UniProtKB/TrEMBL annotation:
Keywords: Membrane, Transmembrane, Transmembrane helix. It comes from the Bacteria. One of its GO terms (cellular component) is membrane. The chain crosses the membrane at residues 51-77, 89-108, 114-134, 146-171, 191-209, 216-232, 288-306, 327-345, 357-376. GO terms for molecular function: antiporter activity. This is Transporter, CPA2 family.
Length: 386
């Protein structure tokens, strides 16, 4: 199958799945994912695994645009008002998720390094599905801003902590090599390069937004900047999502025209999200569900419980409305691209055996990406009703 045919199938299947989902009162995100599963290798095999790997640049562009959009939510004026409470929720929820998933798997008998990596990955939250649900179900007040702030902090923390943990594990493996780079230096280098890339991209976008005469011209610059930022991050083995989030944050806080980029992306974000979510569904291998067994079940239950309880405890320390306290946790349950990306990176390291991390994460993604958007939309509706 050629690439053009595969992209056409993915687009039309995703659009049809989203429409059918909306017709039965489900989020279109769920329909996109189910359509992807249907046309992917797990069911109808209309789109092959080789073709999906060939479409990796589309995934990277979509993740970069999503991360840029999250960063663009972190405006200093808004964050100054919300940051204190959002940070409380994030700290309690993220630390409880890390501790509960790690502790449960370690007590179950998983080796320390595996349990710890699963704990770190479990913190990550899927921004794409949440952003899509927010656009379909706008809420009154700042609930969506708080939600996206916590999502951004979750992913920043997961990416940063993952880099540090992996660096220390690799340093431990290479302890006999006197020439090996210290773990803290490796981690600091990776994070520092990602931040620098993001700052440079953000400054470029600020200059572009000032000088471009039309939103169409800005769009070309934005997509080019995202692809270069993500491409350089991947080439230099640094966190690409951290770089893109940083670029969005720099832009929104230093541009005199902060809404120009969001306006320019408006016409392309929906198709980018559609193909990203449908492709994510196509990549889900349903055969991993029975294989992961108890480890996957423990991971899923522990993460789900920790997100709900951690958010409820965290919001109890704030002055948020009751409806926010009741619903924030369920809106943080989706998990997809960031978790899969971290799992892929982990399995590329010699400290982990092949096919030991990815099956568990994929099984969790299948569950959380099917039920997560439904819970997000329910949370948004409940908050809107007050």
């Amino acid at each position: 199958m050629n690439i053009s045919l595969a992209v056409g199938i993915i687009f039309l299947a995703g659009a049809a799945g989203g429409k059918l989902a909306r017709s039965v009162k489900l989020p279109s995100v769920t329909g996109n994912l189910l359509a992807g599963i249907l046309v992917g290798p797990s069911v109808m095999r209309l789109v092959s695994t080789d073709v999906m790997y060939a479409l990796t640049p589309i995934n990277e562009l979509a993740l970069g645009v999503i991360a840029l959009s999250i960063g663009a939510e972190l405006h200093w004026g808004t964050m100054r008002k919300l940051a204190k409470d959002a940070t409380k929720v994030f700290m309690v929820e993220a630390l409880l998720t890390l501790s509960l998933v790690f502790g449960s798997l370690y007590l179950f008998g998983l080796p320390f390094r595996y349990a710890l990596v699963f704990g770190v990955i479990s913190i990550a939250t899927a921004p794409g599905a949440i952003i899509a649900c927010i656009r379909e179900t706008p809420t009154k007040g700042d609930f969506s801003k708080v939600l996206l702030s916590v999502v951004a902090l979750d992913n920043l923390f997961a990416i940063t902590l993952f880099g540090i943990v992996i660096s220390f594990m690799q340093a431990g493996l290479a302890a006999t090599d006197t020439a090996s780079t210290p773990a803290i230096v490796m981690a600091g280098r990776n994070i520092g390069i990602a931040l620098l890339l993001g700052i440079v991209a953000g400054v470029f976008l600020v200059v572009t937004s000032h000088k471009a005469k039309s939103d169409t011209r800005i769009l070309v610059s934005v997509l080019g900047a995202v692809l270069i930022t993500v491409g350089l991050s991947n080439q230099w083995d640094t966190p690409a999502l951290l770089a893109a989030i940083t670029a969005g944050t720099v832009y929104i806080n230093f541009s005199r025209n902060p809404h120009r980029i969001s306006r320019s992306l408006m016409n392309v974000e929906d198709p980018i999200l559609l193909i990203f979510l449908t492709l994510a569904g196509a990549k889900l291998d349903l055969s991993v569900l029975p294989v992961v067994g108890q480890i996957g079940l423990i991971y899923i239950i522990a993460r789900f419980f920790a997100k709900l309880v951690g958010s409820r405890v965290g919001t109890a320390l704030t002055l948020f409305p009751i409806s926010w306290k009741r619903n924030l946790g369920r809106a943080l349950t989706p998990q997809a691209g960031v978790a899969i990306g971290l799992a892929i990176i982990a399995e590329q390291k010699p400290i982990f055996a092949p096919d030991t991390i990815m099956p568990v994460v994929l099984a969790a993604v299948v569950v959380f990406e099917l039920i997560g958007p439904i819970l997000v939309r329910k949370a948004l509706y409940d908050v809107d009703r007050g």
